[in-house]
Design a protein that fits this description.
Blueprint: E1 5-10, H1 15-25, E2 36-41, H2 47-59, E3 65-71, H3 74-77, E4 83-86, H4 102-119, E5 125-128, H5 133-142, E6 152-154, H6 157-170, E7 178-179, E8 182-184, E9 192-194, E10 199-200, E11 203-204, H7 211-223, H8 225-233, H9 239-254, E12 262-267, E13 279-287, E14 290-293, H10 301-320
Parallel strand pairs: 1-2, 1-4, 2-3, 4-5, 5-6
Antiparallel strand pairs: 7-10, 8-9, 10-11, 12-13, 13-14
The protein binds nicotinamide-adenine-dinucleotide and (2S)-2-hydroxybutanedioic acid.
The site of (2S)-2-hydroxybutanedioic acid has 11 residues, from α8.
C-alpha cells in the first residue's frame, strides 16, 4: 500500500456528498492500492448529520479508507489537501437559473480560496462543483494567489456525460462508441455542446443525426438537463454529479482514453478567442497528470456564435463578482 493522499470534500453532508464519499472511500478515484484520508467540511449545523455519514463510512470497512476527519473550519479541512472537491454551496430550486446563486454562494468560495492558499498542499488539484461552478472557480482562484490557477477547475463533466449519453441514444450506439464530444463555455443554459468534431463508432456524428435535431433539440436538451432533473426529482442531480466529479478528477490524474478528450472548466490560455483567465469549458486531453486544451479545431460560424454567447455570460458573471477578488 502507498502512503495515503488527502482528499478534502466540502458540503460533505449534502446530497452530492452522500453519493461521492463512498466512491472516493472505495477506491473508485485513485484505485485499490491507494489509501485515502477524507477531510470533510460542513457548516456547523450539519456536523451532526455528517457524523452519521462518517458512521456509515466506517461500517463499510473499506480497505482503501485510511482516515476520516470532519470540521466546520476550512483551514482544518484543507490542511495539506492533495485534492479538493468544492461541492458545498446552495443548489437552485425549480424556476431558478444557476446564476441566481451567484451572489449568495460567492462568499463561500472567497473564504475557501483563502483557506486553500494558506493550508492546502502546493500541488492541490481542485474541482469546483458548487454553482455557478465556473465563476465560483474563478473566485476561488483569485483568492488563492499562491496556487497556480491551472490547478483550480470547474465541473462541466456532467454536461459532457449528458451530451455523450444523448448522442449515443439517438445514434443507437453505446456511450463507449462516442468520442470527441465537447462542451464549450459556462455550466449554464448558454453552454455549447459541440458535435462538429464528434464521432460515433468512428464516423462523424453529424452524418448520423439530422441537423435540425442537433440544433433544435439536442443542444437545448443537454443545456437544460439540470432543470429537467430538478423538475422530476424536486432536487438537483446528485449521483450523476458525484460521478462526473469523480471522473473529472480521475481523468486529470490518470489520463483521458486514447483518441478521445473530455470537457473541463479551466482558466483560458487565450485560445479560441476566449480572454485569458476566464474559467471556460474547453475540450481537453489529460496525460501524465496534466490537462491540455485541444488546439487547432475548426470553428465555423454556427459554433463561433455560441462560443461567444457563453463567453459573454461568463464575462458578465466575472464582472458581477469582481469585488470578491483579492488584491
Ligand atoms: P445540498 O444542499 O444537498 O448540499 C450542499 C451542502 O453544502 C449542505 O450540506 C450544506 O450544509 C453545505 N454547505 C453550505 N455552505 C457550506 C460551506 N460554506 N462550507 C461547507 N459546506 C457548506 O446540495 P447538493 O445537491 O449537494 O449540491 C451542491 C452544489 O452543487 C449546488 O450548488 C448545486 O447547484 C451544485 N451542482 C453542480 C453541478 C455541476 O454540474 N457543476 C451538478 C449538480 C449540482
Ligand atoms: C445540474 O446541472 O444538474 C446542476 O448544475 C444542478 C442544476 O442546478 O441544474
Amino acid at each position: 500500500m502507498k502512503n495515503p493522499v488527502r482528499i478534502a470534500v466540502t458540503g460533505a453532508a449534502g446530497q452530492i456528498g452522500y453519493a461521492l464519499l463512498f466512491r472516493l472511500a472505495a477506491g473508485d478515484f485513485l484505485g485499490p492500492d491507494q489509501p485515502v484520508r477524507l477531510q470533510l467540511l460542513e457548516v456547523t449545523p450539519a456536523l451532526k448529520a455528517l457524523q452519521g455519514v462518517v458512521m456509515e463510512l466506517a461500517d463499510c470497512a473499506f480497505t482503501t479508507l485510511a482516515d476520516v476527519s470532519t470540521s466546520d473550519q476550512a483551514e482544518s479541512a484543507f490542511k495539506d489537501a492533495d485534492f479538493a472537491f468544492l461541492v458545498g454551496a446552495k443548489p437552485r430550486g425549480p424556476g431558478m437559473e444557476r446564476s441566481d446563486l451567484l451572489l449568495g454562494n460567492a462568499e463561500i468560495f472567497r473564504v475557501q480560496g483563502r483557506a486553500l492558499d494558506e493550508h492546502a498542499a502546493r500541488g492541490v488539484r481542485v474541482i469546483v462543483v458548487g454553482n455557478p461552478a465556473n465563476t465560483n472557480a474563478l473566485i476561488t482562484s483569485r483568492n488563492a494567489p499562491g496556487i497556480n490557477p491551472r490547478q483550480i477547475t470547474a465541473m462541466t463533466r456532467l454536461d459532457h456525460n449528458r451530451a455523450v449519453a444523448l448522442l449515443a441514444a439517438r445514434a443507437n450506439a453505446g456511450a463507449a462508441d462516442v468520442r470527441r464530444v465537447c462542451i464549450w463555455g459556462n455550466h449554464s443554459t448558454t453552454q455549447y455542446p459541440d458535435l462538429h468534431h464528434a464521432t460515433v463508432s468512428g464516423r462523424p456524428a453529424l452524418q448520423q443525426v439530422d441537423a435540425a435535431w442537433y440544433k433544435d433539440e439536442y443542444i437545448p436538451r443537454v443545456a437544460k438537463r439540470g432543470a429537467e432533473v430538478i423538475a422530476a426529482r424536486g432536487a438537483s442531480s446528485a449521483a450523476s454529479a458525484a460521478n462526473a466529479a469523480l471522473e473529472h478528477m480521475r481523468d486529470w490524474v490518470n489520463g483521458t482514453r486514447s483518441g478521445d478528450w473530455t470537457s473541463m472548466g479551466i482558466p483560458s490560455d487565450g485560445s479560441y478567442g476566449i480572454p485569458e483567465g476566464l474559467v471556460y469549458s474547453f475540450p481537453v486531453t489529460c496525460h501524465g497528470g496534466n490537462y491540455t486544451p485541444v488546439a487547432g479545431l475548426d470553428v465555423n460560424a454556427f459554433s463561433r456564435e455560441r462560443m461567444d454567447a457563453t463567453r459573454r455570460e461568463l464575462e458578465e458573471e466575472r464582472d458581477a463578482v469582481k469585488q470578491m477578488f483579492a488584491g
